[in-house]
Design the sequence.
């Protein structure tokens, strides 16, 4: 099984992926997404992750969570939030064709703030919208924007009003979730918040795990399977 794949073997594959080669060589292709060698190189220590890596990883989470015993998850692409902000509900109305958001347990929304990544988690079961930021910034406005999006989606797709008073919107405080200690790991923090939350696990990792998480993500993307 892949879980017994030796650490050495994994290390060798990661070194090869980080090695020289055609930048546009396709290293992994699934979910209508492609990840090139150049994209994979954003997983090298202290590099900023790009959209391709993040979207592929989020798709792997969704895929894993189709298995028995996991909460059902819908993850929006990194391109969703900017589109919502620039064009309003109409601009993203068709993004959920074939998906009933209200039948999901969790909805993940990666948010790119110019030079920083954060994550919004909508827990449909608990009626919460929470903002996770590894630099401890507040995202209350972002949570409100996403509540409004859900409200429109609910009206449009099922002709139902959401009751604002039943929902809790909040930004996680910096002492409640792991925080980054450098300027480059926000994308990895965001992906791992999503990973732990989508397993209903307490978020227990730290900055020290980042070099290992980056290597692990390379392996997972190439093998299209989460360890």
Sequence:
């Amino acid at each position: 099984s892949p879980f017994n794949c030796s650490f050495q073997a994994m290390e060798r594959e990661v070194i090869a992926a980080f090695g020289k080669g055609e930048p546009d060589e396709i290293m992994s292709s699934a979910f209508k997404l492609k990840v090139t060698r150049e994209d994979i190189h954003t997983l090298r220590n202290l590099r900023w992750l790009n959209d391709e890596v993040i979207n592929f990883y989020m798709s792997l989470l969704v895929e894993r969570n189709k298995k028995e015993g996991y909460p059902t998850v819908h993850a929006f692409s990194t391109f969703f939030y900017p589109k919502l902000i620039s064009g309003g509900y109409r601009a993203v109305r068709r993004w959920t064709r074939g998906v009933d958001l209200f039948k999901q347990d969790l909805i993940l929304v990666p948010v790119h703030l110019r030079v920083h990544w954060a994550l919004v988690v909508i827990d449909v079961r608990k009626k919460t919208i929470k903002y996770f930021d590894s630099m401890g910034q507040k995202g209350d406005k972002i949570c409100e924007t996403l509540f409004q999006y859900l409200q429109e989606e609910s009206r449009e797709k099922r002709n139902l009003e959401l009751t604002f008073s039943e929902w809790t919107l909040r930004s996680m405080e910096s002492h409640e979730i792991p925080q980054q200690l450098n300027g480059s790991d926000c994308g990895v923090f965001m992906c791992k918040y999503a990973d732990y939350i989508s397993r209903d696990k307490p978020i227990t990792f730290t900055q020290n795990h980042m070099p290992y998480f980056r290597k692990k993500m390379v392996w997972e993307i190439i093998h299209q399977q989460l360890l």
Observations:
- The CA atoms of residues 42 and 49 lie 5 Å apart.
